[in-house]
């Protein structure tokens, strides 16, 4: 859905020969598990991106996945079989992410936990894309 949104709002030419539905079908070949039916008009009801002021919120879910995967990567890097190392990372997580909560800017909380800005690499790895 994000790829469709980006294409429709950045590169799609409404005066061109391709209809929005044809673009949807083109992208479905790459991203969808099952192809849409020929008469599918999902775009007419996809309000998450196109109406209701939710578009930025839609992408926040993906950002949450980035943060989650990167946080879990801290435990992986410590060694999931190393109980003491996992306990230390868990304490650091508790003392930063859980303890600071909404009283500190989220980017500062993440940096306090990981010692750096978030990276999309763990999410790509966990998703089998890297």
Overview of this protein structure:
- α1 (about 1-10) runs antiparallel to α2 and α4 (about 55-80) runs antiparallel to α5 (about 85-100).
- This protein folds into 2 domains: about 1-55, no CATH class; about 60-125.
- The protein is built from 7 helices and no strands.
- The longest helix has 24 residues, at about 55-80.
- It is an all-alpha fold and about 130 residues long.
- The chain has helices at about 1-10, 20-30, 45-50, 55-80, 85-100, 105-115, 120-125.
- It is elongated and about 60 Å long.
- The mean pLDDT is about 90.
- GO terms for molecular function: metal ion binding; metalloendopeptidase activity.
- Keywords: Hydrolase, Metal-binding, Metalloprotease, Protease, Zinc.
- This is Peptidase M3A/M3B catalytic domain-containing protein.
- Its cofactor is Zn(2+).
- Belongs to the peptidase M3 family.
The whole-angstrom Rg is 20 Å
| Count of the domains | 2
The largest sheet, given as strand count, sense and whether it forms a barrel, is: none
Helix content: 55-70%
Give the tally of β-strands.
0
Termini separation? 21 Å
SS strand fraction: under 5%
DSSP helix count?
7
What overall form do the CA principal axes indicate?
elongated
Fold topology:
Layout: H1 2-10, H2 20-31, H3 47-50, H4 55-78, H5 83-100, H6 106-114, H7 121-126
List keywords for this structure.
mainly alpha, 130 residues, metalloprotease, 7 helices, protease, 63% helix, metalloendopeptidase activity, Pept_M3A_M3B
